[in-house]
Structures are given as structure tokens and as C-alpha cells.
Design goal:
The chain has helices at residues 21-36, 65-69, 94-105, 119-136, 139-142, 175-180, 187-195, 199-206, 214-222, 225-234, 243-255, 257-268, and strands at residues 2-5, 41-45, 148-152, 157-162, 167-171, 183-185, 210-211. The strands form 2 sheets. A 5-stranded mixed sheet has the order 5-4-3-6-7. A two-stranded parallel ribbon has the order 1-2. It is α/β, with parallel strands linked by helices and 276 residues long. α4 (119-136) runs parallel beside α7 and α7 crosses α8 (199-206). The chain folds into 2 domains: 2-105, no CATH class; 119-235, 2-Layer Sandwich (Nonspecific Lipid-transfer Protein, Chain A). It is built from 12 helices and 7 strands.
Length: 276
């Protein structure tokens, strides 16, 4: 029996599924069934919904038990929390489970945009993250990180961050400056993104932001190097502040050489391969 994922659980786009998250999960599900040839497949993830005004748009694009069932994939059955499976009868209550999920999807509760966070708190969080970046990223690499801007829509402010220089500023901004900012989010998400090492990963999972240039640049060619570094630092897979950390970093990336080669050759072949 195969238990696997059938829908996305993170940011996949602004006003549509620009990252093809739903389609990619269907392809992965189909390939897993073809390769493993299980007698039964039970989709178990992701039974999530995006529950805030800042991300509920993505509920319209996710795969559901009904949409997967319409594909008529061999051996696919859904189970609802509390369901039991009898290995003797080897049967499922698939239709009843999907009916219960259908009722859940029809009654999604959406929370309002989080309360605003003060500008001073956001500034302190950004400064903290810039200092971490300066202390952990080698200067030649740090100097290559370009500046970027975020429009904080509930405060109507623009946050500009220049990692190479280690500074930032938050200002009113005119219409052109607000529209030119690549990212858009509310102040609570902006604060959380910088306040904690795992803040960006949380923002990606929640999808509570917009990337205005994603359609043109995508993940690989345009996702801010600052954010890529933040993800690496949060998992401590890039640390040269001491001997132990340096050896751990070298060992990690050496063991990843096969994955990186696969990603690189996939890019050359024009095959979309998710970044780390």
C-alpha cells in the first residue's frame, strides 16, 4: 500500500497556479503508481487549506479528493480521519470519505489579514537578519546579493533591503516605487520573514505574499539570492564560523553532489527541477 501526496502545500502563484504545483503533484502521483505498482494507493497529503485573506486565493487551484478521483487512477482510494481498513476484506469506504471531505471544503473558514506590526519592529527584524548574513556569509558572496524591495500593503510602506551593504530603509514611497517592489505582503508576514531564521520557510509554506515578477523570472533565475541564503542559513548547511561547522558544511554539500548534478543537467535539458 502506498501513502503519498496529492496536492501542494505552499506558495504556487499570485493569481493562478504559476508554479504548476497541482499539475506537478498529479504527475508525481501517477509516476509513483507506475513505478511502485502498489495494490492500493491512499493519498494522505496535503489536506490543507489556506485560511487567511492573504493566501485563500490558492484554495481555488488545489487538487481535491474529487478531482483526483476523476482521474480514475488504478487502486487510488481516500480515507477520512478515523477510518479503518480491514486487510481481510481489502475494501475502502472511498465514496463516503470523499463525501465528508467535500463537506469540509464547502465550509472553509477564512481569517482576516493579521493585525499590523509597527514599522520599528520590522526594521529591527531586518537588521537582525542582515547582521546574521554578514557574520555567516563570506564577503565575496555577500557582495553579489542584489538589493530588493517589498511593498507592505497594510501600512502602505516600501521596504528596501541591500544585503551587500548591510542596510535597509522603510519609507512611504510613491506609486511607482510601490508598484516596482517585487514582493508584496502584509506587515505581520514581513516582520515574521525576517524575525526568525525559519521565517522565510514559513512564509513560503503559508503563501501569504505575492511575487510580482515570478512569471518572468521564476524560482531559479529570479528568486532573490538573499532568500536562498536565508533558507541555507536557517538549516545550518552553510556555516564556516568554526572548524566543526566548516567540516559539516563541506560534508553536506559533497553528499549533495549527485542531486546538484541532476538539477544542473535538468536545467540544461529544459526540465523543471525544484531548487533546494
Amino acid at each position: 500500500m502506498l501513502f503519498t501526496q496529492f496536492s501542494f502545500a505552499q506558495w504556487v502563484g499570485n493569481d493562478c497556479d504559476e508554479d504548476h504545483g497541482a499539475e506537478r503533484k498529479i504527475e508525481q502521483l501517477t509516476q509513483q503508481i507506475e513505478v511502485f505498482k502498489p495494490e492500493f494507493t491512499v493519498p494522505t497529503a496535503s489536506f490543507v487549506y489556506f485560511c487567511n485573506e492573504e493566501n485563500c486565493r490558492m484554495n481555488h487551484w488545489m487538487n481535491t479528493p474529487d478531482s483526483i478521483a476523476r482521474l480514475k487512477l488504478k487502486g487510488v482510494n481516500f480515507m477520512y480521519p478515523g477510518d479503518e481498513w480491514d486487510s481481510d476484506s481489502r475494501t475502502f469506504e472511498d465514496m463516503q470519505a470523499r463525501e465528508r471531505y467535500r463537506a469540509d471544503y464547502a465550509n472553509l473558514q477564512i481569517d482576516p489579514t493579521p493585525d499590523p506590526v509597527e514599522i520599528s519592529q520590522i526594521g529591527q527584524a531586518v537588521e537582525k537578519r542582515l547582521q546574521e548574513m554578514k557574520s555567516k556569509v563570506p564577503t565575496p558572496l555577500l557582495k553579489r546579493i542584489p538589493p530588493f524591495a517589498i511593498y507592505i500593503h497594510d501600512l502602505e510602506k516600501v521596504l528596501e533591503v541591500d544585503p551587500a551593504r548591510g542596510n535597509h530603509r522603510i519609507f512611504e514611497g510613491n506609486t511607482q516605487q510601490r508598484q516596482a517592489a517585487r514582493y508584496e505582503m502584509c506587515s505581520q508576514v514581513a516582520w515574521f520573514t525576517f524575525a526568525f531564521p525559519w521565517g522565510l520557510n514559513t512564509a513560503l509554506s503559508s503563501g501569504m505574499f505575492r511575487d510580482r515578477q515570478f512569471a518572468e523570472k521564476g524560482w531559479k533565475n529570479g528568486w532573490s539570492p538573499f532568500f536562498k541564503w536565508q533558507i541555507r542559513l536557517s538549516t545550518e548547511v552553510f556555516r564556516f564560523t568554526d572548524v566543526k561547522g566548516s567540516l559539516r558544511t563541506i560534508n553536506f554539500w559533497w553528499r549533495k553532489k549527485g542531486v546538484k548534478f541532476f538539477q544542473y543537467t535538468g536545467t540544461l535539458r529544459g526540465v523543471g527541477v525544484a531548487d533546494e
